[in-house]
Structure formats: structure tokens, C-alpha cells
Design goal:
With about 200 residues, this protein is mainly α. The protein has one domain (about 5-95, about 105-195). It is about 80% helix and about 0% strand. It has 9 helices and no strands. The chain has helices spanning about 5-20, 20-35, 40-65, 70-90, 105-115, 120-130, 140-160, 165-170, 175-195. The model is unreliable at about 95-100 (pLDDT under 50).
Amino acid sequence: MIGYNITGYLIFAFITTITPGPNNYLLFSYGRNFGFKDSGKLMSGIFVGFLVLLYASGYSIAGLVTSHPTVEFSLKILSSFWLFYLGIVLSKLSPTDQVTSNFKIGFFQAFLMQFVNPKAWIMAITGAGAFLPHFGNIHLSVFVFALIFGIVGIPCMIAWIFFGDMISRLLKSEKAHRVLGILLFILMNISILMIWI
């Protein structure tokens, strides 16, 4: 039996990936200081490291849901509360400060950084709890879950590198700041509704 809310998942993946966090600050700084051409190893390390987190979260959640169907309901409740809290936080974003970096980070360092990145862990666990597809085959479910997050994540990483200056200016504008906060709050609440449909 297939159970999957792709619209809610895409909204969740986009919002959590595009909003400020350790990876995006680093991408912004790296792109500004070294340019897109030198950012390949950094992006690859972030992508592969986060993919590992997604797989780990997907398999552990999938196993729990398969063994105890009632766990799914509890996970939906917890995920909904977390997403609502995240929506409130996103609606009150403050202007970002420019991040500077005087050194280049390679694939391995970026890969390892994911395992000490609290936002990455929260995204992976919350995403698996709320949006892991139910295709009857755990391996297929986890693969689709990780693949879609990865597909959404790549353009978001590129955006932070290419448009760091523009994003920085946007978030420093109070008016644009309020509009962006309201929009993110609305989108996150739509994402919560999709969990229950």
C-alpha cells in the first residue's frame, strides 16, 4: 500500500534546506570568498554526509513503524509540534551577519560536519518521522525519501553560493524580513496539514 504526501514533503524539504543554518552559512561564505568553481568538494561533502543521515533516520523510523503501527501516529504528533515550533522560529528570523572563512574545506571535513550539525539531524529525523513514504518495501521507501530531499537540496545549496549577497541584503531589509517570515510560517503550517491528509 502506498502512503505518501509528496506536496507536504517538498514544502518541508525546501523550507528546511533553504533557510539559514550551519551548512548554508558555510556555503554562503565559501561561495563569496572562493566562488562556485571551488565549492564542488564542499557541496559534495555536505550532500553525501546528509544523505547518510537521511538513510540512518529513514531506516530507524521505518523499522519502528513497521513493527509498531501505532508509533506512526505518535511520530506525526511529535513532528507536527516540532514543525509548528520551527514555523514560529522561521517567522522571527533576524538579519544574518556575513560569515567569513579564511580556509578551504574539503569533502571529508564537510562530510563529518553533518554529524555534529544539529539542524541536519533535526531535518533528517523530523523528515523521516513525518514524511517517510510507505511503499511496502523499506528499502524503496528510504531511497525515495533520501532522493527527494537530495534533489531539493542541490539547487538550494547552489542558491546560497551564487546568490549569497542578494540573500544577505534581502534578510537585512526589515520589510522584506517580515514578509519572508510570514510566508515561511504559512508554508510550514501547510506542510503540517499535509502530514494528516
